[in-house]
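Q: For a teaching session next week I want to show students how multiple molecules come together into a single three-dimensional assembly. I've collected the sequence lines for a complex. Could you give me the predicted C-alpha cells for the whole thing so I can convert them for display?
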Amino acid sequence: MCAQPAPEPASDGRVVLDARDITRALTRISHEILERNRGAGDLVLLGIPSRGVPLAQRIAERMAAVEGYDVPVGSVDVTMYRDDLRMKPARALLPTQIPAGGIDGKVVVLVDDVLFSGRTIRAALDALNDIGRPKAVRLAVLVDRGHRELPIRADFVGKNLPTSLVERVRVTLAGVDDTDAVTIQGVVGQS
Amino acid sequence: MTSTTAYWVRGVRILDGDPTDLVIANGAVWGIGVRPEEGAHQEVVEVDGTGLVALPGLVDLHTHLREPGREDAETVDSGTRAAALGGFTAVFAMANTEPVADTAGVVEQVWRLGREAGHCDVYPVGAVTVGLGGERLAELGAMADSAAGVRVFSDDGKCVSDAVLMRRALEYVKAFDGVIAQHAQEPRLTEGAQMNEGELSGRLGLAGWPAVAEEAIIARDCLLAAHVGSRLHVCHVSTAGSVEIVRWAKSKGWAVTAEACPHHLLLTDELAATYDPIYKVNPPLRSQSDVEALRAGLADGTIDIVATDHAPHPHEDKDCEWAAAAFGMLGLETALSIVQHTMVDAGLLDWAGVAERMSYAPARIGRATDHGQPIQVGAAANIVLYDPAATRNVDPTESASLSRNTPYRGMELPGRVVATFLRGRPTVLDGKLA
Amino acid sequence: MKRHLLSAADLSRDDAELVLTTADEMRSLADRPIKKLPALRGRTVVNLFFEDSTRTRISFEAAAKRLSADVINFSAKGSSLSKGESLKDTALTLEAMGADAVVVRHGSSGAPHLLAHSGWVRSSVVNAGDGTHEHPTQALLDAFTMWKHLGESRPGGLEGRKVAIVGDVLHSRVARSNALLLRTLGAEVTLVAPPTLLPVGIEGWPVETSYDLDSVLPKADAVMMLRVQRERMHGGFFPTAREYSRRYGLDGKRMAMLQDHTIVMHPGPMVRGMEITADVADSDRSVIVEQVTNGVAVRMAVLYLLLGGSEPSIGETE
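A: Of course. Below is the structure for the complete assembly, covering every listed component.
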C-alpha cells in the first residue's frame, strides 16, 4: 500500500540499457567497489527506495560470489529529508532497514537507480547523519544522466547517459517491474 | 385606544375567504366588504391587500422576554418588537427572569414595561414555586389579583416535579380560573442531558434526554389534573408519545391543553451532529417521526396551539462548546412562516386552523379576553396581514431581538408579515415596525 | 483540503492503512541512536489539554518532538482557563501564536469539532479525546497493535478478525473510535457490557453486542478491556464492583478460555482487580505496554501525514 506507482511499460521509450547491459554494469560496479575498498570488509550497502534497494541486493549477491562473504545490505528512506517535502502532499514513507551492525565506522555505499539533480543523495546524506557516523560514504548509481544542481558526484556509475532536461529516464527492474531495462522517453505528450 | 386614521385594506382574504375590503378604524373592525365612509375619518390609508391573508392577531403563550435580569439578551421592548414583526399582538412572558416573576411586584413591572413599549400586549406568567425552586408555592393569588391579572403559572425552564406540589398548584389556581403550564421534564432522567436520546446521542457522545422523561411527567400531570378537576397546560410537547398521552387525556374529557413549538415541527436531532449549539434547545430536537406526530397532532387538535418558546441568548452563550451552551432558540419572527411551511403548505391546516392554533386557542387558555377574536365588524382590530406567497432568507442580523440565536439562519422560508394591528393601530406596516 | 482528525470515521480504509504502515516506519526509529526525524522542522504543534491526561499528552509531545516540531503545552490547570476563559478565546490566542496543529483534549463532546469548524483557528485539529465522544489516535494505536500481532502477516490485514471490547461502552470514547475504525479495517467488533453501560440505539452501530462475556471470549482474536471509572460505581449502573468484576472482569480463569494467539489489550489506566486482574495484565498475552510504545509511533504518523507535506494526506475533508 506504500509502493510507488509502477512505471508504465517502457515500450514507448528508447531502450538504452537492456537486461544484459544492466547485469554487466552491476557486475562491473561490484568489482569496482571491492577493488576500491580493498575487499568487502567494513562495507555496508544501503539502497535508496524504491529501485535502489534491489540494485543494492544484486550488487551484494555479486560480491558474495566473488568474495564468499555476505556484505550487509539495507535501505535508507529519504522522504522526510527531501528539500521539497513541503511542496507536495505528505508522502508515504518507504522502508529504512539498517543492518544489525549499524553504520558507525563502516564504509557505506549508497545505491540508487538514477543520479540527476543530486538532491536525493543530499537527503540521503542527511538521513545517514541521523543514523550514525560512517567512516566513509560512497555513491553507486546505475545511470548518471547529468544536470546536477548540487556539488555531488557518483563514485561508481553503470552508464553515463547524456540527456535533455525534458527527457525522462526510466529504470525498470525484474522483481519490482516486469523486466530489466533503462529507457529514455521524449517529451511527446508531456508538459 | 382609538385612532382617527382609517386603514382601508383592499382585496384581502380573511382567513380562507374570497378577497374583500377590510376597513379598520377607531380601534375596531369598522367594516368588511365596504369602503370607508366619506368624511368619517380624518385620514384614510389605503393598503393593497392583493394576495394577503388577514389573520387575527397572533397570541404566544410561551415567550421569554428576559427582562428583568438579562437585558443583554432581550428586553420587553426588543422582544415585543420582534413579536409585532412576527404578527403577534399578545405574548405571555415566562417567569424565569432575575428576579423570578414570583411576586405581584415583578409581574406588575413586566406588565407595565409591556404597556410602555406598546408593540404588543404583554401578559406576565407567574412562577408556580418561589424562585422556581420547586419547594413551596409562590403567592399565586397575589399575582392573580395584581394589575397584571396573571392567569398562567409556570416554572418553565424547570419542571414542577414534586407530585404533591403539582397537585396543590393545580388545585389552588382553580380559585381564580388559573392554569398551570408545565415544563414536563423528569429531572433525574435528564441529569446532564444534552440532546434527544437515540442512536445519534450515543454516536455523538452527548448525554441523552429520553422521550420518557417528558412523557412520564405529562401522564402523571394529566392524571393529577383529572383527579383534582383542574386545568393543565403542557408546554412544548416534543415527542410522539406525548401526543398520544395528550390525545388519551382529551378523550377522557379532561381539561388538558398542549402546545408545540415551531422548531419541533421542522427540525430534527440530526442537526446536533454539527455540534453547533444553535440547535441546542430544551426539550431537544427529536426524530423525524416525532416531528410528523406533532404535525398530525396539531392538525387534528390534540395539540391545541403553537407557542414559540422564544428564548434569546447572548452570542457568547451559544459561541462555545455544546455542553457549555445555553438551551433555547429565537422564534417570534419566524413562527408563522414555519407553521405555513410545515402545516399550511403541507395541506394539514387551512388559515382558519392557523387562526385557531395561534390566536383563538392560546388567548382562551391564557384568558386573554381582548385577544383571539374572529375578524368581524365591531371586534377589536387585532389583526395581522400576511403574504404567504413571499419568501425570505433568514438573516439573524435583521432580527429585532437583541439576540441572534435563530436556528433558521440562511434558510429560505415562505411568507412575510406585511402589517400588524394592535387595537387598530399599526405596530408593523410594510413589513417594518410602524 | 483534508485538515483534521476529529473522528475515526474521518479515515477511509486507505487512510487508516497509510497511518499503520507509516507508524511501522516510525516505530523503527525507537531502535536508532538519534530518535529524531526532520519532517516537522519549523512547524508548531500545540497540545491543548482541558482535561488532565498526562499519558496522552506526553505521547503526543514525544511524537511531535521526534519529528522536530516545536511543541507548546497548554493545559487547563494553572492557566487562564480556570478563570473562565472560553475555548474561543484560547483558540484565538493559539491562532495568534501561529500554531500549525492543535492537539485538543476536552471534557465536552464535540469541542474539537467546534474548534475545527468555528473559523477561530486555521490550524489542523487533532482530537486527543473529547468527552464521551471519540479518541481516534487511541483507536489507531490499538488497531496498529492488533495489526502487528494479528494482521501484518496475512492478506487482508485485520479483515475478519474478531475483536471484543468489554466494559463501559456508554461513556467510552475509546470504544466509539475503535468500533468505527476496526469496522473500516474489516474487523468484526463485539461490544460486551451490562445493558446499563451500552448506549441507547446501539443496534444501529456496525457492531455486535453481547451481555455475556463468557460466550464471546472463545471466539475473540483480541480482547480489549475498558476502564471502569470510579464515578460509575456510584451512578447505579451496576450493583457493586464485585458483581461487575464477576460478570465482566477478565481474570485468569477467563483468560484460559482464549485461543492461543489471542491478545489482551487495555487503553489504560487500569483498575487492577476491577476490570482486569494483575495476572492477566502482566501475562504474555497482554500487549498493554506495547500499546503505549505504539502510541508514540502512531501519533508521529498522524502528525507527519497531516503536517509533513503541503497539505494533509489523511483525515476529514473540509
